[in-house]
DUF4124 domain-containing protein
Amino acid sequence: MKIHVLLAAVALCALAASASAQNTAEKRLYCWNEGGRKVCGDALPASAVDAARTELSVKSGRPLGQVGQQLTPEERAAADEAEHQARIAANAEAARARRERAMAESYGTEEELRRAFDDRIVLVDEGLKTSRMGVANLRQSLVSLLRQANDLELQGQPVRKALADNIRSQHADLLRQQAIMRQQLEERASLDTELEHAVERYHALKGTNKG
């Protein structure tokens, strides 16, 4: 009998504590937008659970908290992608800053910096020369193969599979070499601008005046 009395007393204490917590908890008023208008209530309907809302004290009217709108899976994916791209951009900017600091530490004078760029320009120019020769040779070879195929067709003869395969292969090689040459031309065109920017950053980091 004493055990039952003890258990009953514990249960009563728990209920009293729960009631006290509920009484002391501050009642809230919820405000959210619904259909373009502001709606407030002391209870949050299921339709507004995921909506952005402000929670106010019923007693004082002061804001107790702000809850942002819950994102859909598509919106969450877009937000994650935007965050990912922002991190990539931040890392790229940090890497650029490190390169510029290293540049300032590596070259004692502007002349040394310009000589380093001259070396890069020579390498790009040599690569362009090789690419131009490659494109010319591949184009000449492709024209020869196409002429052979054309002659066969004019004679009413079928174009052999080996010849057709060779034409496709030569054409693919020509497109690849042309793409490489376009990249080299873009790099060469940007080198002059890049050099001037590097010189400006060099003097800014060194704390000296250009010229």
Observations:
- The helical segments are 2-24, 73-106, 110-154, 161-206.
